């Protein structure tokens, strides 16, 4: 097993507890990892504006992987890489969602739209489309219809939602780029997550860690299952694989 040189952390359901906070214990453990010159990278479905404050508070000096790999940023807010959805496809997905009756949200380069239709889809650059419903039949119907649109990558961040990025774009693809920038390999990465949008980075990292609260599919592919997000699962995984 290679020495861990980078820790990639999903945020919701992983780094953050149910109150969307990082516990003091986890903060201390991350600080210890940084002291060992291990890179800690937030790898999230969130857009820059809603993850940057956490990275700043943790004093992470490296990169940020946002929108499920749709963008890579430096902590100086310099854009390293960006992958956009086709605006016509986003409009089609919106229409599908309206027909099927799911709640939708979309992330553009300048805003987040929740349940509101933009006046002109073509005037925006789209990073991610998402929808959710507690009705699994509706979600299944949505997945089936979306599969007819080419060039899309479908994942989720909860069992009740679907997240859409351009084909080939994932947290794993972005982390590979970050590794290239830092001169390390994916074999030297520990990736931690709980949902389908984490599955590729967990599979492709040297050490893939599933949270105790993770979806079963994630636990099945992980090398290790840690404690839950409400019981400092991230800190315990870092202690086990990075600090011990």
UniProtKB/TrEMBL annotation:
Hydrolase found in the keyword field: yes
**Keyword vocabulary terms for this entry:** Hydrolase
Q: Does the keyword Membrane apply?
A: no
Q: Give the CC-aspect GO terms.
A: cytosol
List, in alphabetical order, the Gene Ontology terms for molecular function in this entry: magnesium ion binding; phosphatase activity
**PROSITE patterns, sorted:** COF_1, COF_2
What CDD domains does UniProt report for this protein, alphabetically?
Answer: HAD_Pase
Superkingdom per UniProt: Bacteria
InterPro entries from the entry?
A: HAD-like_sf, HAD-SF_hydro_IIB, HAD_sf
* Name this polypeptide is given: HAD-IIB family hydrolase
């Amino acid at each position: 097993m290679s020495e861990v040189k980078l820790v990639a952390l999903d945020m919701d359901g992983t780094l953050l507890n149910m109150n969307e906070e990082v516990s003091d214990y986890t903060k201390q453990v991350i600080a210890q990892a940084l002291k060992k010159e291990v890179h800690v990278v937030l790898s999230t479905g969130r857009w820059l504006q809603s993850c940057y404050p956490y990275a700043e508070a943790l004093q992470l000096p490296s990169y940020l992987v946002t929108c499920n790999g749709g963008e890579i940023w430096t902590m100086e807010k310099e854009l390293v890489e960006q992958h956009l959805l086709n605006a016509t496809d986003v409009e089609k997905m919106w229409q599908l969602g309206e027909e099927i009756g799911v709640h939708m949200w979309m992330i553009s380069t300048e805003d987040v739209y929740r349940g509101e239709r933009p006046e002109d889809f073509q005037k925006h650059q789209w990073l991610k489309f998402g929808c959710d419903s507690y009705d699994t039949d509706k979600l299944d119907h949505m997945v089936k219809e979306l599969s007819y649109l080419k060039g899309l990558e479908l994942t989720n961040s909860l069992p009740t939602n679907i997240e859409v990025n351009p084909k080939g774009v994932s947290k794993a693809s972005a982390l590979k780029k970050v590794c290239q920038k830092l001169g390390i390999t994916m074999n030297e990465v520990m990736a931690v997550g709980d949902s389908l949008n984490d599955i590729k980075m967990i599979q492709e990292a040297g050490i893939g860690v599933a949270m105790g609260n993770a979806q079963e599919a994630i636990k099945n592919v992980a090398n290790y299952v840690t404690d839950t997000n409400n019981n400092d699962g991230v800190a315990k995984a870092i202690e086990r694989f990075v600090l011990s």
